[in-house]
Amino acid sequence: MLYNIFIDPFVQMAQMPDLLVQTLWEGLVSGVLYALIALGFVLIFKASGVFNFAQGIMVVFSALTLVGFYEKFSAYGFSGHTAAFVALILTAGVMFVLAMLIERVVLRPLVNQPDIILFMATFGITYMLIGFGEMVFGGDPKQMIASELFLPSGSVDVEMLGGMVSFQKIDIAAAVIASVMIAGLALFFQKTRIGRALRAVADSHKAALSVGISLNQIWVIVWFAAGLVALVTGIMWGARSDVSFALEIVALKALPVLVLGGLTSVPGAIVGGLIIGIGEKLGEFYWGPLLGGGIESWFAYAIALLFLLYRPQGLFGDKIIERI
Amino acid sequence: MSLKNWLYALSAAASLTLPAVHDAQAEDSIYVPLFTYRTGPFAGSGTPIANGMHDYLTLLNERDGGIGGVKLIVEECETGYDTKKGLECYESVKPKKPVIVNPWSTGITLPLIPKAAVDKIPVLSMAYGLSASAKGDTFPWIFNPPATYWDGFTQILQYIATQEGGGVEKLKGKKIGYIYLDASFGREPLPLIEQLSKELGFEAKLYPVAAADMQNQSSQWLSVRRDKPDYMILYGWGALNATAVKEAVKTNYPMEKFISIWWPSEDDAKGAGDGAKGFKTLNWHAVGADFPLLADIQKHVVDAGKSQVSGKDKVGQVLYNRGIYNSMLIAEAIRKAQEITGNKVVTGEDVRRGLEGLNIDEARLKEIGLEGFTSAVKLSCADHNGHFSTFVQSWNGTTYEKVSDYIAPLSDKVGPLLDADAKAYAEKNAPWPARSEACDAS
Q1: Do B219 and A244 touch (CB under 8 A)?
Q2: N or C: at which end does chain B have fewer Cβ atoms within 10 angstroms?
Q3: Nearest residue in chain A measured CA to CA from B211
Q4: Residues of B near A (CB-CB distance < 8 A)?
Q5: What's the whole-model pTM score?
Q6: Number of structural domains, chain B?
Q7: Strand-pair partners of B123
Q8: CATH number of the domain bearing residue A277
Q9: Rounded to 5 degrees, what are φ and ψ at A155?
């Protein structure tokens, strides 16, 4: 048994290095996509102190809206790349309107309420979006308009290390787009005036208000940014499978990333995502068979908890010191 | 009289009136609840089935005025494929005296098995649920025609053996992968797989997929790449099927060696593009809408705006027709119950007898408008399943085509295991009541 746990997986890695590279690649792609989901949570938490339970359904809602718009256009004979990008812009518009509505209807009336009230309000947003989404789009799974959005298909097969490593073009695109998006958001929040305002709000609502920063405006921007992140996430996950309400549970995969990376750190979401993504793939592939397989979902939490033993605030989270 | 007193008076009047209304309703109608899921992660599979079930029963109301002149009250309860919600649905419909329940989830079916006999409500778990519930002597209130998950597994094994050029002895030394939803449904055939792998000499490789990872199966398919199974068998549901087909294509797994139990839909294969051609599933009924009954549904239900289908092309798709088949069993069981009892308005107890006497032969299929749609169905007091043959259908890029003859299950292997499993269930749930229900001569 000890051999199977401590020796055999490493023997396998050495004997089949091509599969190790493939596993690391799959983990990297998953990790980047988890990081993207986690980023949606982090953005909103940083700005408003709210753990946005609705982030998962925002992924579904944005992807369904995109495909829904495109299907409507197609029904009127307007299809192809132009229609897809018009649908994309309109979907971004819908996410902006959603952000405004959430700020106006949910957040503004709840200013100064305990965090748990705001957290519960995001449950309300979740169920409202589920109901509304099902009413408008139905429960049927839909195909993501990947090729219409110039997302590639097929694979790049590379002979290496005595075997073949297959890189799916959609996965390469997902990794690149997610990385660009994460870098763009990081730059936006580090280098722009709005970004600085966001960080001020994150540090202290009252102090930010006292220097004239509009809390309402910041909330709309942040929820809109989270909406765009959800849209990109929905496109990428949708292209890998299909667009259905099952995407909602993909968001659960972000939870161990947040445990690991901390709720307030953008770099934490990225590094956490990569650690969880690669860790769970290695765990499932090399150690999963010892435990009957299917360990991926809890193995991610095991990794996160292991890290927390040494850094309870998460990898990049702020250490909270409360004087009593 | 003050406002408060008026309110008291009104509520008292309502409390006296409402039961009367309910009784009146019960006297001239038959209540058929449908447990469905048009929402949640499994809606992709649940919606077409719900539409098929609903449209067939609606047709009977619209075209024939119900069954035997008695209107059906058809009511959907949304379970979201969630066992807890399914049990809530059951408790909410129970006071309305349903004549049958269709859980549409193995997870929901399992806790209903002990309740059915107590509440006198037969459970129809059509080709899902507990395989051993086929044993009518142990489970007089549970029905799972036309084949169990265990039957299905042996039918796939036989198809594989045929591809290898012989009988099941050809499976010896083969490596067979089993990728499945890690829930009650997917775990159901595991004891059979363990037993048959020993008896037939094949190596079984298991690839469970948690519900949270349905759309994230790269680890499982990396393992497939490492293990190189000769054939892959899929027991998936919802988004799991579509993702599995996509991942198989991505991994370059030969699609002609990838065979599923009977649940994948057209959408599950379509998403993987041309690479999915050759993907196979079991089935026991036709695909397509070229049947008189489906034409009537189109005319009386879909065109009349009484269906929830999102497009006319959805009528006749594989899971829509699965819903049609399910409702055919319900309707014919009610009809049989009316025939046995002589009553027009039947109860759950009557419909249980109707299910045991179910005999839908070719002539009856023609009368229904489903000639050539499926093979005859006959149940009995002892056999609540029938263990009927199924065939293999293959995805051609547009639709599923039948590519095999009908394959009977390996009854000599499955039968004793079902007997043992039914016995073990009764012992585990002791004191399990001995069958007290009389058997009508059929």
Answers
A1: no
A2: N
A3: A249
A4: 37-44, 46-48, 182, 206-216, 218-220, 222-223, 225-226, 238-239, 242-243, 246, 250-252, 267, 270-271, 273, 310
A5: 0.86
A6: 2
A7: B101, B142
A8: 1.10.3470
A9: -140, 160
Q: Count CB neighbours of B345 within 10 A.
A: 18
Q: Residue B206: phi, psi to the nearest 5?
A: -105, 135
Q: Which residues, numbered 143 to 182 in chain A, qualify as contacts with chain B under a Cβ-Cβ cut-off of 8 Å?
A: 143, 153, 155, 166, 168
CATH number at residue B153: 3.40.50.2300
Q: Do the Cβ atoms of B39 and A141 come within 8 Å?
A: no
User: Are B47 and B109 found together in one domain?
Assistant: yes
Collect all residues with Cβ–Cβ distance below 8 Å to B202 and sequence separation of at least 6: B171, B172, B173, B174, B175, B176, B196
Query: Does B266 share its domain with B306?
Result: no
Task: List chain B residues with CB under 8 Å of A23.
Answer: 219, 222
pLDDT string in tens for chain B (442-residue length): 444 455 455 544 444 444 444 443 456 899 999 999 988 888 889 999 999 999 999 999 999 999 999 999 999 999 999 999 999 999 999 999 999 999 999 999 999 999 999 999 999 999 999 999 999 999 999 999 999 999 999 999 999 999 999 899 999 999 999 999 999 899 999 999 999 999 999 999 999 998 888 888 989 999 999 999 999 999 999 889 999 999 999 899 999 999 999 999 999 999 888 999 999 999 999 999 999 999 999 999 999 999 999 888 999 999 999 999 999 999 999 999 999 999 999 999 999 999 999 999 999 999 999 999 999 999 999 999 999 999 999 999 999 999 999 999 999 999 999 999 999 999 999 999 999 999 986 5
Find the domain containing A32 and state its range.
Answer: 2-310
Residues B272, B169 share a domain? yes
Of B44, B206, B222, the CB nearest to A244: B44
What is the extent of the structural domain holding B234?
149-283+390-412
Shortest alpha-carbon distance between residue B67 and chain A (Å) = 30
The answer to the question of residue B300 being in a domain is: yes
Measured from the Cβ of residue A63, the count of other Cβ atoms closer than 10 Å reads: 30
Reported ipTM: 0.82
Number of domains in chain A: 1
Q: What distance lies between CA B209 and its chain's CA centroid?
A: 21
